[in-house]
């Protein structure tokens, strides 16, 4: 299956949206196996994670995520909304959410965050009525924003001293900007007025977050958000558990 996915990725990169017909034909077959493959823990530590079988599973998982990433970054996200493919969306969204929040491979987490950001841009406008996928906006606000953008980065295992982790953190910061641009007050109500207080963020920091979010300086916002996360971690004494 890896070779087949690599071939599809090459087709996607060469033909972009012109490959939509082919993908609509083959995607249901791929998607029907995707949940079984991606739900397995292929990145466990210790001897079990170093067998040939596990290495093959790791390669297959990485190739599948590369395939999904290639689809959305080459203007093919509409394939996921096709009648033959739509039935697999719920499973795919849940897998992407889990991976973006807690996968052991930090680079796969980055890819999944990037996929979500592109889907927001492709499927959502500033008007709910024009959204291409009903319910996607709510899913992103209530599940992704809270789970990935807040609780996952509060985990001690999310090492802000690690270079690759900081790259993922940058993508997560960008995701918040995109959600604010597309979702507006709906995002603010859930994230600033609800999620941050529930994570025991001091009110004055939540207000500063809102001000920085509205600004145009992404570097300043990223720096502030990292500081905010570190302060909440200190306040929690590292005891906050992802939920």
UniProtKB/TrEMBL annotation:
It is found in: Nucleus; Cytoplasm. GO terms for biological process: tRNA re-export from nucleus. Belongs to the exportin family. tRNA nucleus export receptor which facilitates tRNA translocation across the nuclear pore complex. InterPro entries: ARM-like, Exportin-T_C, XPOT. This is Exportin-T. It comes from Aegilops tauschii subsp. strangulata. Keywords: Cytoplasm, Nucleus, RNA-binding, Transport, tRNA-binding. Residues 1-231 form the Exportin-T C-terminal domain. GO terms for molecular function: small GTPase binding; tRNA binding. GO terms for cellular component: cytoplasm; nuclear matrix; nuclear pore.
